[in-house]
Amino acid sequence: MPTSKPDATGMVDVVSQMRRIESELSTAARRVSDVIRSDYEAATRLTIAELAELAGVSQPTVTRFCRSVGCESYKEFKIRLASTLTVASAYLRTDRVFHGGTGQMAQMVMLRAANAVRDCLSQLDIPALDGALEALSSAKRIEIYGQGGGSASLVEDAKLRLFRLGIPVAAYVDGHQQRMSASTLSSGDCVLAISNSGRSKAVTQAVEIAASFGARTVAITRPKSPLASVSEIVIPVTIPEDDNVLIPTPSRYAHMAVIDTIAAGVAARLGERGLEALRRVRYTVASIGIAIPTPSSGSASLMKPNGSQE
User: Looking at residue 17, what is its pLDDT?
Assistant: First the structure.
């Protein structure tokens, strides 16, 4: 079973550690984790015997679980958990507690999403983010690359966030098109590559091609991955995946949060230029279905969603 070490301050954030190793836990240890996660506050008041009984495991199993998150004993685990709740309970609690069925499922999915975003924030590399914002906001053209089910949807989301700022943006999820796109780039252009694993061969090669022609390259991916090794600027995101195939992977929420942060940061750096582009987009979309005078007759015509008049 994995063992987590205290951070540089000597403290162990046991909640984050529980998330990081969850997929590696034994079935029995995961039952212990599930009981604790169902009510963190109550867990700080349980005896080891009570926790073992609720989880349906032995007391030694509880002790082994505590060691897997960096605590020598159950007593130390409860102290660490109480410390975490003291400074971060608002991020771990919800006023609604569900017991079974759809409500419990909704609570599990949404709390996992919130925890993924929180974990992403805790590991966010601010200098790398600053570098990415500088490269993207000064780019003449941005090409966005990603492959696979998760990354493909994120690529489209990133394009939607950035093109509204008035920057020429294109997104590609096909490997051949990524390579062709990369070969047309030059100095002043920028690539944004998105990959949770960082092992997409097509994306990695496209980034290499773009860099060879002078384009800047930014990657949102795992550190020390093949994609990270060929990218100029890397925003590292390391969120453990869940083995439950019926719910969205936690990394998806983390990547979405980073993309939204980048979009907000680029907009702020563009200043008036970005605001004007956003204003035009907002006005154009809001004007659909509104009577607008036509230049030729001065009479009002109703614009349909497809741009035709009636």
Answer: 83
Residues of the chain with CATH 3.40.50.10490: 126-270
pLDDT of residue 40: 83
Q: Degrees (nearest 5) of the Cα angle 10, 15, 18?
A: 100
Q: What is the CATH number of domain 14-95?
A: 1.10.10.10
C-alpha to C-alpha distances, 142 to 119, 174, 203, nearest whole angstrom: 28, 16, 15
Query: Quick check: 238 and 251 in contact, CB under 8 A?
Result: no
Q: What is the mean pLDDT of each run of 10 residues along the chain (310 residues)?
A: 42 75 87 88 90 93 92 90 69 56 77 84 93 97 91 92 93 96 97 94 97 97 95 92 69 93 94 88 77 54 48
Q: What is the residue whose two structure tokens read 């083995």? A: 243
Query: What is the C-alpha R_g of the chain?
Result: 24
Beta-strand ranges (E) seen in the chain are 141-145, 169-172, 189-194, 216-221, 233-236, 291-293, 300-302
The pairs formed by 175-178 with CB atoms below 8 angstroms and a separation of 24 or more are 175/147, 175/201, 175/202, 175/203, 175/205, 175/206, 176/202, 178/145, 178/147, 178/202, 178/203, 178/206
| Residue 148 main-chain phi, psi, to 5 deg | 100, 165
- CATH code that applies to domain 126-270: 3.40.50.10490
Distance CA 309, CA 306 (A): 9
